């Protein structure tokens, strides 16, 4: 999708600090980090706007993203723990409408993010 910022990062049309990629998944540093380590995981293809509208036939991307997150967390040395979250819809303050997950860690996380 031309007007989707994460599609443009996936296509290399706008820069991102990429920490991981394979055929289906890309991970890059969040531009406005909320923890010492804050990585965004996306499907390279625009499968859905959010988790809420991901089709069952596309759901294997969830395993690929979680597996990539597990690998990146290891690579970043997050042995003390981390959080993986997705914002879906306005109540969750979702701001980019391309399915994505946030990996947060590298420090003691206090409560849920507001
Ligand atoms: P959401 O609020 O939709 O769950 O998360 C979207 C995230 O994308 C936000 O944390 C925001 O900082 C990040 N973001 C928005 N635009 C860009 C960008 O151009 N580059 C990067 N690296 N992150 C972005
Ligand atoms: Zn997109």
Give a written overview of the molecule.
Residues 5-114 form the HIT domain. A motif (Histidine triad motif) lies at residues 98-102. One of its GO terms (molecular function) is catalytic activity. The active site is at 100 (tele-amp-histidine intermediate). The protein has a single domain (5-105), classed as HIT-like (HIT family, subunit A, 2-Layer Sandwich). The mean pLDDT is 96. The N and C termini lie far apart (29 Å). The chain has 2 helices and 5 strands, in the order αβββαββ. The longest helix is centred in the middle third of the chain and has 16 residues, at 60-75. It is α+β, with helices and mostly antiparallel strands and 114 residues long. The chain is globular and about 35 Å long. It is 19% helix and 22% strand. The protein has helices at residues 5-10, 60-75, and strands at 18-21, 25-29, 37-43, 82-85, 101-105. β2 and β3 (37-43) form a beta hairpin. The site of zinc ion has 6 residues, from α1.
């Amino acid at each position: 999708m031309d007007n989707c910022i994460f599609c443009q990062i996936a296509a290399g049309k706008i820069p991102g600090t990429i920490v991981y990629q394979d055929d289906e998944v890309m991970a890059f540093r969040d531009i406005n980090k909320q923890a010492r380590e804050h990585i965004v995981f996306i499907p390279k293809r625009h499968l859905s706007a959010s988790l809420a509208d991901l089709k069952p036939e596309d759901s294997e991307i969830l395993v690929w993203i979680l597996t990539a997150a597990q690998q990146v967390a290891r690579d970043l040395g997050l042995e003390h723990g981390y959080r993986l979250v997705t914002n879906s819809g306005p109540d969750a303050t979702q701001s980019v409408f391309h399915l994505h997950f946030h990996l947060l860690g590298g420090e003691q996380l206090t409560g849920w993010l507001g």
